[in-house]
Design goal:
12 strands, about 170 residues
Length: about 170
């Protein structure tokens, strides 16, 4: 079961540069999250460290780089596009992804992902502080996202997603 959906609420500040990345990952079971273990050889949240990187914008969407690093065990499977929610420090979901892709890819060392986010111009959203990334196990890796915020796109209904270009 995916993370709960939330409605985006109107930006109070424009996106700013992300502070120097600090590899911090916490693992929190999500009530009601998927109970499936995923494909054979799926990574557990304890095997994966997620580190935020640089942010920027392209084609009307703000992006934040996130690196997944295998920190325990053998190579394992992660979703090509994990379920994603941007949350406040207290865990309140502020916005949920619209384009999860559960197809498995292998994490043998590191994989580079991008979180992409845009909203319609004039729409403001509260500033999230964490990206909660759901792996197959139903556990969530929470990654601090600094000042990352959405870009403004005329006519956009809003879009939030996380993808990798890995084959």
């Amino acid at each position: 079961m995916p993370l709960p959906t939330a409605t985006a609420i109107p930006p109070t500040a424009s996106p700013a540069a992300l502070p120097t990345p600090v590899p911090t990952t916490s693992v929190t079971p999500v009530p009601g999250a998927s109970e499936e273990s995923g494909p054979s050889g799926a990574c557990t949240a304890a095997q994966v460290e997620a580190t935020p990187g640089e942010s920027g914008a392209a084609a009307g969407t703000s992006y934040l780089a996130v690196t997944f690093t295998l920190v325990g065990g053998e190579a394992c499977a992660v979703p090509r596009g994990p379920n994603l929610a941007l949350t406040a420090n207290d865990g309140t979901v502020l916005v949920h992804d619209t384009d999860a892709d559960p197809r498995p890819i292998t994490l043998a060392d590191q994989l580079e992902y991008r979180i992409g986010w845009n909203v319609g111009c004039g729409v403001s959203v509260p500033r999230p502080t964490l990206a909660s990334i759901e792996l197959y196990s139903g556990a969530v890796i929470s990654v601090p996202i600094g000042d990352f915020g959405p870009s403004c796109v005329d006519g956009s209904a809003g879009r939030l997603f996380m993808v990798t270009d890995a084959p």
